Amino acid sequence: MAVASADSPPHPSPRGHVLLAPGRFRGALSAAEVAAHLAAGLRRVRPDVPLVELPVADGGDGTVDAAVAAGWRRVEVEVCGPTGRPVTARLALRGQSAVVELAEASGLRRLPGGRPRPLVASSVGTGQLLGHAVRLGARRIVLGLGGGACTDGGAGLVQGLGGRLLDALGKDLPPGGAALRSLHALDLRGLPDLSSVEVVVAGEAAGPLLGRGGAAAVGGPRRGASRDEVALLDAGLRRWADLAEAASRRASRDLPGAGASGGVGFAALAFLGARIEPGASLMLDLLGFAEKARGAYLVVTGEGSLDSRSLRGAAPMGVARAAARAGAPVVAVAGQRALTGERLRRARIQAVYALADIEPDEERRVRRSGALLEQLTVAIADEWLPPSGLPPVRPSVPPPAPPSEP
């Protein structure tokens, strides 16, 4: 069951509006910047069409920004980055609900110089962010897992909340997944009481914590780990799982999602009592998408690369499904696309407009992505919006298609 946005008042939209609900273009533009460029272009070519901007996310990098753009309060706090250096990270707050994002404190983009540190990168800062949210009165926390730099099984998250990981001499372990091989005992007396706090992980149910389909084997190479380092990290995660499950009395290592984001999903399941929900639909509920899509003439979504990976729960797919329930047609913008024909129809996206179609050079495309998006709006307006001065006649929406193929 998705988290209801009880603290979020409804945001009625003007009827006949265009709802701009894109995700981010990785390495180029945030979701809010994509929405702003789409709005700027459409205002030039169809100044009489009302626009509503709703940047979206799926639990990964940009999740807090999406909540802030939807009216949540931004809170900044200094925490440990993935390598221990202090960083200023953000969370979003509304009433007794908070949105916390792994990438804000422990993300790849927080690595000094962008240099991977697979053995020592830690989720300590994410635990500190969670603790700060609880101290601010949050009783419902959405934890976005995605874009993380660490493969520590969430051990750092527990440390950031006040727990201690000790070696055989009773000394605190250094951060990172490699050190977990020397874990001898846990001291959890410093953890806050989270019994009255509901934690929901926004993300797709990934694999288990350990083994060939586990956190180290699947995510370690993406975070810079060699084959030998993957084996070392998996051994550390196994030791961590043995002691963590005994301490939490929750058998979590084999649950779907335990391997998410370097195993941070495991710690959320074992120590926070979290449940995992599809990130895109969870965030759309949280952002009030259904209310803002009501009466929409057209919905525009998108992301940097629209391909087969997008079908596995990315934000545009969630937008397309939700817009179909509202009876609104959906078009997408993308840096590049690999989905066409039947795959798009199954995803309930009527058309895709790609920057690569007007700028084939990738470097120039990234550098000029904002201007190119505004250029694309001319085609979107010509093909989907009535000329200025004419009454809107809503485009027909194809009948619902079967769910997207995996």
UniProtKB/TrEMBL annotation:
The enzyme's E.C. designation: 2.7.1.-
Annotated segments matching region Disordered: 385-406
Annotated signal peptide: none
Coiled coil: none
Biased composition (Pro residues): 388-406
Statement: the UniProt record of this protein carries the keyword Transferase: yes
GO molecular function, a single term: glycerate kinase activity
PANTHER family tied to this protein: GLYCERATE KINASE (PTHR21599)
NCBIfam families, per the entry: glycerate kinase
Protein name: Glycerate kinase
UniProt organism field: Actinomadura litoris
